[in-house]
Amino acid sequence: MVEDDFTFIPLSNIDIETLIKIIEYMKKHAEKTDSKEEDIKEFNKDFVKKTLNELFVLVLAANYLHINSLMKLLCQSIADRVNDKTPEAIRNIFNITYDFTPEKGKDY
Amino acid sequence: METLLLHRSSPAAVAAIPNPNPKRPCCSSASGLNPSFTTSSNTSKSNIDVDVLLESFLGLSESSIDLSFDRILSFKASYSEQDDVIDRALQLGSALVEAGRRSARKRASMHNGVVWALPSDLTIKVFSLLDTQSLCYAAAACSFFQNCAADPACYVDIDLITVVPRVNNAVVATMVQRAGKVPQSLKLGCVPGPLASSSGSSQPLVNCIRKSTDTARFSWNDKRSRQGKESSILTRSCLAPLSANGESTPGACLRRLHLYNIERLDSTSLTAALSACPSLLDLEIVGLNVESRQTLESISTFCPLIERIFFESSKTGRDDSLKLPTCNDLVNNCPHLSSLSLRGFRLHDYKARVLIKGFRKLRYIDFSTSYSITGAFLKNLGGGSASGSLLQVLILRDCMHLKEVEVARFLEAVLAGDFGHLNYLDISNREGLVSEGDRNHRCYSPSFIPVARLLDERPNLCVLAEFPLEGSFNDIEFDSGDMDSEMNLPSHLIMSTSDSSASFMSISESSYSSDPSSGSDDSSSGYDESSDDVDHVSI
Questions:
Q1: Whether A79 and B171 lie within 8 Å, measured CB to CB
Q2: A35 touches chain B (CB under 8 A)
Q3: Among A78, A87, A97, beta carbon nearest to B111
């Protein structure tokens, strides 16, 4: 709905904290110019230093809002946390329980 | 008296205890309960009865079950009846265990679903960023991950390179199959030691261990000798999955294929594999026992789009199979080739010339450790015509028969304006270059290189001319060989020679001295070890 000079867009899937973080990201990337490449890289690195749950919520929100660059950044950071870990370690980090039937998948 | 009916009902009925199937009458288990159980026509009532029964059973203590069971057995008249009771107990017991486990798994999965909040499409996105090994580990973590990891999107780049042989054919087959039609890149084999990036390193990646019958051990630098093991588990048919499936072959989209040290792979299988990969752009083969001629023939027949070829021979210097018709075929059929590396082959100048002149888009050439090549092919190469003038990188490292005189002439041509795009030249040589005239005399100094003029006229050119001595190899890593990457190199001239001592690594004579001279006019049959006066020019 449009009223005067602002528009309401209901976002039922995203809570306020996540939205604030997303807005922070978007603002930073909106001011991107060539000279600020380093700056933005630093920002990105700090941005992904969050807990796993925060990252998950952010990914879901970014997915819902179709923000591709943020999606890529977040997926990459999650992938980095999964990368180079044994199954045991993965289960520990992500608090996942073993739920296979006796014929487990093969691992290399 | 109502006897305990322990008829053998079907296992389905037994399993129906936790999920009561209203159509089947349940039998009672060997518990101490009063079996006042009726197969009533009212199905819901029987379900409730079963539930009540089971719940009461679950409320029993283990010792009471134990004792009750023994009592029941003792009342049985015949052995067969006792056997029946025992069998039933075992069956029902395992059914209960299975039911419990199944529920435990369900609960675990639900817990995982809460803890890992991403739906499967996002999980697949994350997994597609993992390397192949980690992907398999993730798949082993829980069933949800396993399902996500089976999605073809995760298998676009399959990298199965290992330091020790661990991968066998079945693994390759599984991966390729999972990838469906999607695989774009397949890397296979063993690379010992820290994996150098698959392009650009000038160290030989060849696996050096041979069987005891093969005496020509070839090891460049004993300190860092790359002694790998044969990947004996990858056999000839390891690439067969690429051509499987009739029309929609997995190999159809494959763009990059890198194979390292797969000793059992032979020419036939390689040809078959190449025939399944018409979109191949980048082929890298190191340490395979295939003839270069056959491989190049296959490439020219099946892979016309190829842009990068990197071969490193396992039989350094002895592979003489490259013939002129092959070169011609290759040149005619593969016009897009922009990067060509043939390391460790016996390459004659006229063949090199055909290759270089023929490929119009050639930007990167690496003929390191080639035998018989003297540099004569560089004569008159860059002038005028289109070929040779796009050349950006020329590497002729450790070419035993490379002549100083030819290099000097080449540099003159460069100064005169040819090879306008050349920005990297590497003529380092562990044994120095062949001097004019005396073929036993090697030249170790780079003084023939007109440094000052090069600095003036070609400031972008980087020349690397390391002449031996002790292992002070300059590992310049540069991003090359990929289809359209430009060279980013310092815009000044780099020249370095190693200094001081005159003792150089003793290389076993057998590696290049006693080559049966098959038409090569430059085989130096020996050289003076250390009595040459070695000039050292430090710049």
A1: no
A2: no
A3: A97
| Beta bridge pairs of residue A106 | none
- Chain B residues at the A interface, defined by Cβ less than 8 Å, are 105, 108-109, 111-112, 115-118, 122, 125-127, 129-131, 133-134, 136-143, 145-146, 166-167, 171, 174
Residues contacting residue B459 through CB under 8 Å, at least 6 positions apart = B491, B492, B493
Q: Does A103 touch chain B if contact means CB atoms closer than 8 Å?
A: no
Phi, psi of B27 (to 5 degrees): -100, 160
What predicted TM-score, i.e. pTM, was given to this entire model?
0.62
Give the residue among B89, B79, B136 at the shortest CA–CA distance from A82. B136
> With an 8 Å Cβ cutoff, is A91 touching chain B?
yes
Q: B143: which chain A residues are within 8 Å (Cβ-Cβ)?
A: 99-100
Q: Which helix (H) or strand (E) holds B83?
A: helix B79-115
Give residues with Cβ within 8 angstroms of B390, minimum separation 6. B360, B361, B362, B363, B421
Q: Is B32 in contact with B1 (CB distance < 8 Å)?
A: no
Distance (Å) from the C-alpha of residue B161 to the closest C-alpha of chain A?
A: 12
Q: Would you say how long chain A is, in residues?
A: 108
Tokens, residue B24: 């089947």
Contact of B308 with B359, CB cutoff 8 Å: no
- Does any CB of chain B come closer than 8 Å to the CB of residue A86? yes
For residues A91 and B238, give the distance between their C-alpha atoms in angstroms, rounded to a whole number: 32
The rounded Cα B398 to chain-centroid distance in angstroms is: 26
- Count residue pairs from A and B with Cβ separation < 8 A: 91
- Using a CB-CB cut-off of 8 Å, the residues of chain A touching B171 are 108
**Tens of pLDDT, residue by residue, chain B (539 residues):** 444 444 444 444 444 444 444 444 444 444 444 444 444 456 777 888 888 988 888 888 888 888 888 888 888 888 888 899 899 999 999 999 999 999 998 888 888 888 888 888 888 888 888 888 888 888 888 888 888 888 877 877 777 776 555 566 666 666 766 666 666 677 766 555 443 333 333 333 343 322 222 222 222 222 222 333 333 455 656 666 666 555 556 667 778 888 887 777 777 778 877 887 788 888 888 877 777 778 888 888 888 888 888 888 776 666 667 777 778 888 788 888 888 888 888 778 888 888 877 777 888 888 888 777 777 777 766 554 444 467 888 888 887 777 777 888 887 777 777 777 788 888 887 777 777 666 566 666 666 677 777 777 777 778 877 776 533 334 333 222 332 223 333 333 344 433 333 322 222 333 333 333 333 333 333 333 333 333 333 33
Alpha helix ranges (H) inside A31-67: 37-47, 52-65
